């Protein structure tokens, strides 16, 4: 494999043998019968290198050689340094502060092209990248965090990462400069985005930065952030996101608002180009014209004066820093507008932010089929690119992804795991099938909305008895056996209550398990398939269960829960709603219980606090508990590892004891890796299972780094 070199022009999409064998009308397999050009001239005579006619035995030898040449097989593939990954979730945005940027497809791509101070692992642990910089607590009262940017931290256009980049992100995520709080719809987006254009409104307040009320202090390459109180998520609270020098130019330079170089629209609907498009220079300007084969580059245009380019970038980054430090309203209105829109999937020429990142790869092409990333020549960090290009395809359905691996057009696929997809994957020769766990499927109960578990609709005693009776009927082992094991043979019952923090078991503190098992006081989920419990409050109980039955795992879990409850005298009916996902958040009166797959969150502790504290921002169940609130508040302020582990355990134990949530099983995930050597194709090594529910996939991409 090549290391950190600019690749040749990538093969056009329709040249790669990636079409589904079903669509082609055959059973699959690659056509290995293509022949090379013949060498015989058809006369029965050969011609030697000096132009003389060769007859007799020599001529016969020449004919034999010609026949051999005619029947030889040309290499079917020619991309040994170009790896292709197929997934089901589209790339939407590089902006990690927006709903689109937090979508699974965006998280995957950002993990490939963006580096920062830290990254987050599946178990909730934080991994530092000293080649980018350091993050450290320098004072406990007031709680103060210092960021020091390393000299090797650079944007892909060669511009150094500066404090301006962090100040821009603080301005966007702290909420301190926003003049309005927009109404957010069920999709996580502002209901009226046009109303934000004339005010300072980044509309992306982070709970991990909301207590950083003062403008951060800048001293050389360091940025110091003072919080009003301790913040558990301090290690991942602030990092680089969008480049200040590009956002500054797009927002504040009148020359950037031309038809040749339009500002980002934010709609993500810019028509994609047919091929790679030149990206931005260090000043954010895109060279004219459309590339016909060469990958995009964020390097300065040929002949550009590097000193002038650097000075221009510093000018626009400085303009952003000044606007934030001096709270220049006029400038911040424009900066906020560009920040909200920048980085959305579309033509890379119209959004230079798409080609200006800090990781070992940089986007060269974004289209309807996915993205193409190439090595970032400006990258000087600890994990350089190991392939000439990485193509992430999002245009194939699950079975087509499997076919593409079989046919050599895709090297790694992470299709939706279903029975037919898993069976097809098992038939692919020369490939390894990886199965494992993804999001944690949990059963949560609605304690508001006037339903059967709402104390206000009956009494506290009746509601508590009803909750205990229903949850006690759930046979978790049978849910695992019927819903998960057919797709993941090693599936087990999950006890992960705080899946937003970690998808697997959390580390334990002193004497406290962070993953709480059922307790005697709350015999939740203790039923078996053959013996359902009889409990007070069960007779005549009707529970409306909210579930997306388009998901086969949830559909099967629903069947198990329904059957087991019926054996205990409880009737379970499917909640009648148009959109289960929306109803979970906006229609508490329409459901009593819900099957919810819980993904990891980038700010895990903050997410857990918002989900389970009384009146929390994402507390969809209406659960309220003064004792739990105390435990949650302690967790929200736990900044060292031991205190955090103990606090996580206390919150998990409180939730399980109250019967507010019952974890069932991790939903199955599938990854198919073509790992047998094939001429002309890369041979990926060390590829792990891809769980889309992870909040950060930086470490998953370790196999494409040196």
UniProtKB/TrEMBL annotation:
Recorded coiled-coil stretches: none
Span list, region Disordered: 1-48, 255-306, 509-535
Annotated InterPro entries: SBP_5, SBP_5_dom
Gene3D superfamilies with a match to the protein in the record: Dipeptide-binding Protein, Domain 1, Dipeptide-binding Protein, Domain 3, Periplasmic binding protein-like II
Domain Solute-binding protein family: 345-593
Low complexity biased stretches: 261-285, 292-306, 511-535
One Pfam family linked to the record: SBP_bac_5
Biased composition (Basic residues): 1-10
Name of the protein: Solute-binding protein family 5 domain-containing protein
């Amino acid at each position: 494999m090549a290391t950190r070199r600019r690749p040749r022009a990538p093969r056009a999409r329709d040249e790669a043998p990636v079409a589904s064998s079903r669509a082609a009308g055959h059973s699959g397999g690659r056509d290995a019968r293509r022949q090379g050009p013949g060498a015989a001239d058809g006369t029965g005579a050969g011609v030697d290198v000096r132009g003389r006619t060769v007859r007799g035995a020599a001529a016969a030898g020449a004919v034999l050689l010609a026949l051999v040449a005619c029947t030889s097989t040309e290499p079917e593939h020619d991309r040994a340094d170009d790896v292709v990954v197929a997934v089901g979730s589209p790339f939407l945005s590089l902006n990690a502060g927006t709903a689109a940027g937090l979508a699974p497809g965006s998280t995957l791509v950002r993990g490939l092209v963006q580096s920062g101070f830290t990254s987050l692992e599946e178990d909730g642990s934080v991994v530092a990248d000293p080649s980018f910089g350091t993050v450290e607590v320098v004072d406990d009262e007031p709680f103060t965090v210092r960021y020091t940017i390393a000299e090797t931290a650079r944007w892909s256009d060669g511009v150094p990462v500066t404090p301006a980049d962090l100040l821009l992100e603080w301005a966007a995520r702290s909420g301190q400069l926003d003049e309005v709080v927009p109404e957010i719809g069920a999709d996580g987006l502002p209901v009226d985005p046009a109303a934000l254009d004339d005010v300072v409104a980044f509309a992306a307040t982070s709970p991990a930065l909301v207590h950083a009320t003062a403008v951060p202090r800048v001293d050389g390459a360091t940025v110091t952030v003072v919080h009003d109180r301790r913040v558990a998520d301090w290690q991942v609270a602030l990092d680089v996101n969008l480049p200040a020098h590009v956002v500054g130019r797009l927002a504040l330079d009148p020359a950037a608002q031309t038809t040749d170089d339009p500002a980002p629209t934010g709609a993500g609907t810019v028509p994609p180009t047919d091929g790679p498009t030149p990206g931005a220079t260090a000043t954010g300007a895109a060279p004219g014209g459309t590339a016909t084969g060469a990958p995009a580059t964020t390097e300065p245009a040929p002949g550009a004066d590097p000193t002038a380019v650097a000075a221009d970038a510093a000018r626009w980054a400085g303009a952003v820093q000044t606007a934030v430090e001096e709270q220049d309203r006029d400038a911040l209105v424009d900066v906020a507008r560009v920040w909200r829109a920048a980085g959305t999937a579309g033509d890379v020429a119209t959004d230079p932010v798409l080609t200006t990142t800090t990781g070992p790869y940089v986007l060269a092409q974004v289209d309807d089929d996915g993205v193409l990333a190439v090595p970032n020549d400006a990258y000087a960090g600890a994990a350089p690119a190991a392939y000439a290009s990485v193509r992430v395809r999002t245009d194939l359905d699950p079975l087509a992804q499997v076919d593409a691996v079989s046919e050599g057009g895709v090297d790694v696929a992470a299709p939706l795991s279903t029975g037919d997809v898993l069976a097809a994957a098992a038939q692919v020769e020369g490939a390894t099938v990886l199965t494992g766990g993804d999001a944690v499927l949990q059963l949560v109960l609605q304690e508001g909305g006037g339903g059967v578990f709402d104390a206000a609709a009956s009494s506290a005693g009746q509601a508590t008895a009803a909750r205990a009776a229903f949850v006690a009927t759930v046979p978790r082992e049978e849910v695992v056996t019927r819903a998960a094991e057919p797709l993941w043979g090693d599936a087990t019952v999950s006890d992960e209550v705080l899946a937003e923090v970690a998808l697997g078991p959390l580390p334990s503190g002193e004497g406290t398990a962070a993953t709480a098992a059922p307790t005697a006081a709350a015999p939740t989920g203790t039923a078996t398939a053959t013996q359902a419990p009889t409990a007070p409050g069960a007779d005549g109980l009707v529970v409306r269960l909210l579930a997306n039955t388009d998901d086969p795992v949830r559909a099967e879990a629903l069947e198990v829960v329904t059957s087991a409850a019926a054996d205990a005298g409880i009737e379970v009916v499917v909640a009648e709603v148009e959109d289960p996902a929306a109803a979970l958040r906006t229609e508490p009166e329409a459901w009593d219980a819900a099957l919810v797959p819980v993904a990891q969150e980038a700010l895990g502790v903050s997410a857990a606090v918002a989900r389970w504290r009384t009146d929390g921002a994402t507390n969809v169940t209406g659960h309220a508990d003064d004792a739990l609130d105390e435990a949650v508040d302690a967790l929200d302020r736990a900044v060292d590892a031991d205190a955090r582990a103990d606090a996580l355990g206390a919150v998990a134990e409180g939730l399980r004891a109250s019967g507010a949530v019952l974890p069932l099983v991790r939903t199955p995930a599938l990854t198919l890796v073509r790992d047998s050597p094939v001429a002309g194709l890369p041979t990926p090594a060390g590829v792990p299972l891809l769980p889309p529910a992870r909040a950060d996939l930086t470490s998953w991409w370790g196999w494409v780094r040196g």
